[in-house]
Write a structure and sequence with these properties.
This protein has 199 residues and is mainly beta. It folds into two domains: 114 residues, no CATH class; 82 residues, no CATH class. The chain is 9% helix and 47% strand. The strands form six sheets. Strands 1-6-16-19-5-2 form a six-stranded mixed beta sheet, with no helix packed on it.
Amino acid sequence: MTFHEIRFPDDIAYGATGGPEYLTTVVSMASGHEQRNANWSVARGTWNVASGLKNQMQLNALIAFFRARKGRAIGFRFKDWTDYKALGQRLGTGDGSTKSFQLVKAYVSGAGNDVRTITKPVQGTVALYLGGVAQTTGWSVDTTTGIVMFATAPAQNVAVIADFEFDVPVRFDTDKMAATIEQINLHQWSDIPIIEIRV
């Protein structure tokens, strides 16, 4: 999978419409009852960023970004302004030998929960804690995979906790630009779909 570690323009992303999407098959019975089958175990984000375009300068930047990614061909990073921070996330528990831990974000509501794998943390935003104590050295994070690596494995039964900001790996969901001329030096692109990439 071809991917560029570059973030979609934040000022355009700020006006995006969208969020997590699931795929559920619903079969209605003659009795009025129904059977539901969750086809995806985790959500996949979809957005339309057209509403974020406010001026010609932004459109110019978007055209360049779209061409450089060659439409749907190349993935990139996207800041979902509705969900880009994680605080106090438990990555695991030390066993004295495991040195690597994957960044995750847990969503809990009543008895339900969803654990999301985070693969694109934002550089400089990750903070780690072992047993509640901040760790300023002795670890590193791969911002292309979301894997945290400790120089020395956390001790037995020590909780590994992280705070961080993150991007979503996405791609354009169109190969065709459809900009219209509103007036001289003002153009619009009414439908710009972006979809999350599973990694």
